[in-house]
Specification:
Elements: H1 16-22, H2 36-40, E1 49-52, H3 58-65, E2 70-74, H4 77-90, E3 95-98, E4 111-117, H5 125-138, E5 139-150, H6 165-171, E6 176-185, E7 203-211
Parallel strand pairs: 1-2, 1-4, 2-3, 4-5
Antiparallel strand pairs: 5-7, 6-7
Length: 213
């Protein structure tokens, strides 16, 4: 198995078929629990919550278990099927929907918080723009996006596209305020050994980004 995209490839988003292939087995990012970085900001999340690119739903389910109203979207039907099954097994209610996160602009839903764990870094420049514009429509004014993406401090080119701090500032320049960008690391499935990342997991940025009023 290869990771979805080389960081040198910036003109294309990682396509649905590539992700469908990952979900044919255990995906490298699927660690069966939420990332620690999101646990640390849990008290700052307010309902309703959007989990964009939710995968098999660990973050959405974590916030639902804390009493939040949560919607999780992913464009891979198999990921959503697994997420729904987990919700049923855990007796939790989450609205898991098959939806393309670059098409948020045509949606009537509104959210007070959004989380993005590993989605932003799969987009091409064009899809990034579409995603940020759509996110601006579905996130209420004053609402926050909590976003974790691969960082340009992660060596090598295998795996997702690397993102610099400046690219985050550029992507969220109009109508947003970047409150914080902190370095962190992404925990990956230990069974995935085909790409060697930094000790402790790939280096990442964790950004808290507020939709201006
Ligand atoms: C790196 S995985 C992270 C999954 C999950 N957030 C997690 O932390 O386990 C990225 C996810 O985004 C989904 N994805 C990629 N492009 C998407 C798009 N345009 N619309 C919706 N989901 C997308 C993939 O199917 C995959 O589940």
């Amino acid at each position: 198995m290869t990771m979805p995209v080389s960081s040198s490839v910036v003109s294309n988003s990682v396509d649905r078929e590539t992700f469908e292939n990952f979900y044919a087995g255990p995906a490298p990012w699927d660690i069966g629990k939420p990332q620690e970085t999101f646990l640390a900001v849990a008290d700052r999340i307010t309902s309703p919550v959007l989990d964009a690119g939710c995968g098999t739903g660990e973050h959405a389910l974590f916030f639902a278990a804390r009493g939040h109203r949560v919607t999780g979207i992913d464009f891979v039907a198999e990921a959503i099927r697994r997420a729904r099954r987990k919700a049923a097994e855990r007796g939790l209610s989450v609205d898991f929907v098959v939806k393309d996160a670059t098409m948020l602009g045509d949606w009537g839903e509104r959210f007070a918080s959004a989380i993005d764990c590993g989605l932003f870094h799969v987009f091409s420049d064009d899809d990034r723009r579409r995603y940020v514009q759509g996110m601006a429509q579905v996130l209420e004014p004053g609402g926050r996006l909590f976003l974790m993406c691969f960082s340009d401090e992660e060596p090598g080119t295998e795996g997702p596209r690397r993102v610099s701090r400046q690219e985050l500032y550029d992507a969220f320049a109009e109508g947003w305020e970047i409150e914080t960008i902190q370095p962190c690391q992404i925990e990956i499935n230990p069974e995935f050994t085909e790409v060697k990342f930094s000790e402790g997991g790939p280096k990442a940025w964790f950004a808290v980004i507020r939709r201006e009023r």
